[in-house]
Amino acid sequence: MNELSPQINRFRTDWMPPLLTGLVMFVVSTTSFYLPVYFKETLGFSGTQIGLLFALQAVTGLLAAFPTGLGNDRITSRTLAGAGIFVQAIGLALMALVKSFFPYLVVFFIWTLANNVFRLSMDLQVLKTDDGLRTGRRIAWYQTMRFGGAGLGIIVAGYLLYAWDFQKTFMAVAVALTVLLIIVRLLVPTPVARANLAEYRADFFTPRVILFTGWLFLFSTHWGAEQTCYSLFLRSHFHLELHQMGWYMCAEFIALIAALLLAAPYVDKQFTIGKLALYGLLASGIGHVGMALTPLAFSVMFRMLHGVGDGFIFFVFFLGAFRLFNIQRMGGNAGLLQFSMMGGAILGALVYSPIGERFGYGLPFWISGGMLLLLTLPLLFRPRRA
């Protein structure tokens, strides 16, 4: 039994968080990526209302980020992850019942709050159990399962929603999430400690951390374009059915996963955070601009390039948090990083949704892609360092 303990422990630290995250992403993605279509075509919400809903999603992430991070320093991450799954199930069940805008706003807030609590708690589950020896590989496997689950969920959802309506799907997802609570207890308890706010402030307000935070804020603005305009762009520009959208979106995840797995050995040995950020921004920006091109095959290829870039940026976020912060205060500090990223997504959602509705849903991707390319300039012209 003693000989098996290290292997069992490694299974619980290295394999269970990706497995649980992949399963939750698979289940939730059967609805979340198609929500703009549901809002517009079934509920009749305007572009501004859709933008407000996704801005609310980002605001919720903003509100949840630091308290959730702080909570992960004081309570085990698996406890908060389980709570996030349970409340998501309740939120999705309510989303099946509500039709008018303002009540939906309240229900959407509940669901997005729980979604953000779960996601950050699982990120911290991975970070807080890392020993520094296989960081790149652990991040790659975690994100592979996360986006693999999302990609598979999107494909399944395209066919599921073709056969069912959104309301039935919401209820089915709520039940599936409740079942997944069974495996939360298999996660390893993360270290807990009590730090005061002055310690977090001292960690966070340093030049390196502030620059990193500002960079993440600007990078995250492109998520606002994706949240509010992505599925509507595919619908209006290429006239894709829901199951066809699923295959389109999944192509990006395949590219993202390939980038994660191929880059992981180099992340542990050769790549600096600066190199990863530069390669990620170039691929992400060019891909965002190019996906607005026709014909469809070109758009898919550029979207896959964007996925490669985003895969590199996920390495940057995790490695940055792991290297910049003490493990006992990593939750609160990582929460502040998430706070800045959600702020960027809020700005993007509020700006790009009305632009897409008025000028066409491809234009937000040209603008946001250009912003990503501009962010490479400080990295291209910075002093060369190891």
Structural features, described:
The protein has 386 residues and is an all-alpha fold. 53% of the residues are buried. It is globular and about 50 Å long. It starts with a helix and ends in a 6-residue tail after the last helix. The chain has one domain: Up-down Bundle (Growth Hormone, Chain: A), CATH 1.20.1250. The chain has 15 helices and no strands.
Content of β-strand:
under 5%
Largest sheet: none
Q: Which runs of at least 5 residues are low in confidence (pLDDT < 50)?
A: none
Instruction: Assign the structural class, choosing from mainly alpha, mainly beta, alpha/beta, alpha+beta, or little secondary structure.
Output: mainly alpha
Helix percent reads: over 70%
CATH superfamily: MFS general substrate transporter like domains
What's the end-to-end separation, in Å?
A: 45 Å
Which CATH architecture is right? Up-down Bundle
CATH class: Mainly Alpha
| Form type | globular
Order of helices and strands: HHHHHHHHHHHHHHH
Mean pLDDT: 85
* Quaternary structure of the protein: single chain
CATH topology: Growth Hormone, Chain: A
Structure in a nutshell:
By secondary structure, this protein is mostly helical.
